[in-house]
Amino acid sequence: SPPDTLVIRVRGDSMTDAHIDDGDLAIVDTRRSASVGEFVVARVDGQFTLKELVIEKGRVALRAHNPAYPLILPENELDIVGVVVGLTRKLVR
After folding, report:
1. Which residue of the set 35, 51, 57, 90 is catalytic?
2. 53-84: per-residue pLDDT in tens?
3. What is the CA radius of gyration of the chain?
4. Is 35 a catalytic residue?
5. Residue 8: how many CB atoms within 10 A of its CB?
6. Which residue, 33, 37, 35, 42, is CA-closest to 8?
7. Which among 17, 37, 45, 92 has the fewest CB atoms less than 10 Å away?
C-alpha cells in the first residue's frame, strides 16, 4: 500500500542552501526507511529535524545544508519519520 503523507512546517535555517526555508511546507511520505541522498524527517534526541541522509565514516548521519550547522551522527539507531517528496511555500506579494 502507498505510504501516508503528512505536511510539516519547516522551522529554522539549517537547510537554506538546499532552498528549504523557514516557514516552507514539506510534504513527507511516512516511511521508516530512506536512501542515502534523500531529505528525511527524523527524530534525534526527542527532537524532529529535516536533513539529508548521508553516510559519514561508515555511519548513517544527517547533514544540514547550511555550514553553520554540524553533521549529526546519532548515537543510537536513527528514527526516520518520513522522506520529503515535495515542498511548497506561500509567495509574498
Report:
1. 51
2. 999 988 999 999 999 999 999 887 789 999 99
3. 13
4. no
5. 16
6. 42
7. 92
